C-alpha cells in the first residue's frame, strides 16, 4: 500500500519549519502558567492535565497533528499500512538522541508501546489494544502487527497521548515508581532541569535537538500560582505570557482580551473533545441506583452552568458522546439530558424509585468531590449543591489538592460523586471506552472507569464498535451504546468544554499544533 506520509511531504514540512526558523528570533525565556501543580511528571502513567502542559516539551511522539488534523512527522518520518490494515510499518527518524546522549531506536518504540503504554497508561490499552507484537528488523524500523485494523490508533501518536520513553532508563523497573518519573529524559526540544515544588518547573533548550534551528527559546518555565486573581495579575503585568485550560478564569479572560497586548483563543483543543462530567461510585454509597443518577442528570440546568460559570463557552451534553462525533455519524441525542433541567421530572423519578424526603425535605446526603483545577470548578460545585438540594439530595463539597484527589477517586474509590472532565479525543475508542468497559476498572490508573461500572452487554458493544469497519453498522452500535448509558448513567455528561487560552501577543509560533498547550513549543519565539 502507498506510503501515507511520503518523504516529499516530510521535506515540505521541514522546509516550512526552516523558513520559519530564519524569520523567528532566537533566545529568551517563556514563562507560562501550569495550573494546578502536576502530581508527577510521568506522562506515560498519568494524563492529568497539568502534566500535559509540561511534558510534551520533553517527550515526543511519533507524530504531531496540525489544526486541520493532518499528521506531522516527528520521531517517525513516514509509515506504510498493509492493504488489510493489520500491519503498520513506521520509518523512524535517524540521528535522534535522548537527552542523556543515548540513541533513540526502534527498541524504544517497541518497549514504550508494549511494556508501558499498553500496560500502565490510562488510554494506551485502548489505543493499542489491537497491537499484538512489534518487530524491529533494524534500529530505524518498527513494524506493528495488529489482530484487527485499528484506524483510530493513527490519531494517538502525539507526545501528549503516546510519549516515547527511553528503554534504557525504565527496563527492569516498576514503571509506575521508577526514578524517571520526576527526572524525565526525552528527545524533545527542551530538557528537564529543575522542579521547585510549589513554584515552578524549568526546562532548558536542547542544544542537540534533531531539527536544526529549533527550538528558538532558551528556556521555558512553568509557574504554579494557586490564587486565581494572582494568575490574572501575572498575565496583565507580563510575568507570564501564556495560560491555557482556563488557568485565567473566564470572567477575567473576557476582560483581558480587550487589551492590545493580550489575546484569547479557543484554538488548540480540536484533538481532545473535552467533556465536563460527573462520575458516580456505582458499587456503594448514595448513587448505586441508576434511577438516582438519571434524576441528577435530569435536574441539571446545563445552559445555566455554561452561561453563568463559564461565560458562554461550552455546549450542553446530549449523550455519552460529544456532539463533535456527529461528523462521523456516531453521536445520537438521548433522553435524560435536558438543556435547561427539569426539577419536577427529576423529583418524580426519585419518588417513583422510592426515595422519600424526610421532614427537612432531604432524601439522601453525600459528598461531592471537585476536580482541583481552579475557581470555575468550585463555582460548579456550588451550583451542583444548590441544584441537588432542589431534588432532596444534600451535598457537602470537598476540594483537595491534586495528588489527594487522584488517590481518593482512582486508587481508593473513596468517593460517592466526583465532578471532573475527560477528553473524548478523536474517536470514542480512544477517549470514551475507558469510562465504561469492565476491563477499564484498573485501580490506581487515573482517568479510567472509577465508577466500576460493569455491563457485559455494553462490553460486547464496545468491543464491536472498536472493530467494525462498516460505517452504518458502527453508527448503529454506538446508538445502542448511548442508549444503554442514558439509562444506566454511571457517568453524567454535563457540557462540552470550550477552553480558553490567554496569551501575550509577543509570543509567536506556539499555535500550530492541534494539541495547543499540550504541544512542544519547539517553534515558539518572542517578538519584542
From TrEMBL:
Coiled coil: none
Record InterPro entries: Peptide/Ni-bd (IPR030678), SBP_5 (IPR039424), SBP_5_dom (IPR000914)
Pfam families named among the record's database cross-references: SBP_bac_5
Residue stretches making up the Solute-binding protein family domain: 70-436
GO biological process: peptide transport
Alphabetical UniProt keywords: Hydrolase, Signal
Main location: periplasm
Signal peptide: 1-23
EC number, as in UniProt: 3.1.3.26
Keyword Signal attributed: yes
Protein family (similarity comment): Belongs to the bacterial solute-binding protein 5 family.
PANTHER family for this protein: D,D-DIPEPTIDE-BINDING PERIPLASMIC PROTEIN DDPA-RELATED, PERIPLASMIC BINDING COMPONENT OF ABC TRANSPORTER
Compartment list: Periplasm
Enzyme class name: hydrolase
Entry GO terms, CC: ATP-binding cassette (ABC) transporter complex; outer membrane-bounded periplasmic space
Name used for this protein in its record: Extracellular solute-binding protein family 5
Gene Ontology molecular function terms on file: inositol hexakisphosphate 4-phosphatase activity; peptide transmembrane transporter activity
